[in-house]
Amino acid sequence: MKDTSRCIGVRGSARQRRGPLAALAAAVALAAAIPAAAQDDRMTPIETPAQPTAIELGTGPLPGATAKESWHSQYGSKFARNVTVATLTPFLPDPAKATGAAVVVAPGGGFRTLSMENEGWDVARALADRGVAAFVLKYRLNPTPADMPGFEKSMRELFSGNARPPRMDPDQAMKAIAPQIADSRAAFALVRRRAGEWHVDPDRVGMVGFSAGAMLTMATALAGEDAKPAFIGNIYGPLSAVTVPADAPPLFVALAADDPFFAHGGFGLIESWQAAKRPVEFHLYEQGGHGFGMYPKETTSTGWFDAFASWLAMHGYLKPAK
Q1: Within 13 Å of residue 185, how many CA atoms lie on the same side as its CB?
Q2: What domains sit in the chain, N to C, each tagged with a CATH number?
Q3: How many CB atoms lie within 10 A of CB 70?
Q4: Which pLDDT belongs to residue 2?
Q5: 46/49 Cα distance (integer angstroms)
Q6: How far apart are alpha carbons 263 and 283 in whole angstroms?
Q7: Residue 181: in which H helix or E strand, if any?
Q8: What pLDDT shows up at residue 24?
């Protein structure tokens, strides 16, 4: 993959000068390309699934949005798009297993779709089975055409080879995903506000994100806002170098070496965490591509979740706090 900082006009000196925001600018611009692989499989419109336990986050409707939320199936999984109202869906563990730890789960999809099943509900169920309360964040998305043919056409045009990622400075990048950051902050506020009801320790709430959701996870952890995850997971997100705060949370990273988007841009994020002497664990799988999530595959990337659970256990999150 080409140097994305060059593609969008964020030079190395700017990255050093602006820290995590400059790296985020590169990531946000590149996010537009992430759904490209999804064009290899047919998208079939489906009815919006019942979501009786989804809780509106109160961040309001997406400004300027006209299309209604719609869903489709792909790869045998469910995806949402044109999300205009953010929600959080709890997946709570059996009280006998509950550890008091919690994770906000942010699916990916290039800020145009959300892989709600593979990178959301399935992850949350697996966490709850380990005793960790999980909360799937359905964050607001950039609008796309309401009809499926129009959506597919817009995606083909986006990946025709003629389109280039927009040039963004760090402030533009933060503005571009401001609604999503607001949704993430609201999710943390809700979990901590209802911690007693959900038997969650408000100081043991982390976040894991996939692809664009990983970008949102990093922004949540590094933007200096009040969410402050206790730990974070970056699953096949960008690994651009950042300036790491002294109190940065432990970081878990999983990526496939054949990921078409993020496997060839270096490992600056890992090196940044190491240089700051903050805890980091990195799994680079030989195969897996992009978007493997919880799909069963004949590659070792399928083991990322067990590795993540073991990492949580190492940090004491799979046992009740003493």
Answers
A1: 14
A2: 4-314 (3.40.50.1820)
A3: 20
A4: 31
A5: 8
A6: 12
A7: helix 178-193
A8: 55
CA separation, residue 124 to residues 12, 34, 50, 121, 164 (Å):
37, 23, 17, 5, 35
Q: Tell me what pLDDT residue 13 has.
A: 33
For residues 196 and 321, give the distance between their C-alpha atoms in angstroms, rounded to a whole number.
15
Rounded CA-CA distance 172/12 in Å is 17
The predicted pLDDT at position 56 comes to: 98
Burial class (CB in 10 A: 0-12, 13-18, 19+), 131: buried
pTM of the model: 0.89
Mapped onto helix, strand or coil, the DSSP state of residue 33 is: coil
The two structure tokens encoding residue 152? 């597919």
Residue 22 pLDDT: 54
Q: Which two tokens stand for residue 194?
A: 């209802």
The pLDDT of residue 120: 98
In the predicted model, residues of the chain with pLDDT beneath 70 are 1-40, 158-172
Strand partners, 103: 134, 206
Q: Cβ(305)–Cβ(123) under 8 Å?
A: yes
DSSP assignment of 141-167 equals: -----SSHHHHHHHHHHHTSSS--PPP
Q: What is the pLDDT of residue 111?
A: 93
Q: Is residue 33 within 8 Å of 165, Cβ to Cβ? A: yes
Q: Residue 288: name the closest of 251, 316, 263, 268 by CA.
A: 263
Q: Hey, what long-range contacts does 197-201 have (CB within 8 A, 24 or more apart)?
A: 198/90, 198/92, 198/102, 198/133, 199/92, 199/95, 199/98, 199/100, 199/133, 200/100, 200/101, 200/102, 200/133, 201/100, 201/101, 201/102, 201/321
Residue recorded with tokens 């759904």? 35
Are 273 and 247 a contacting pair, CB within 8 Å? Answer: no
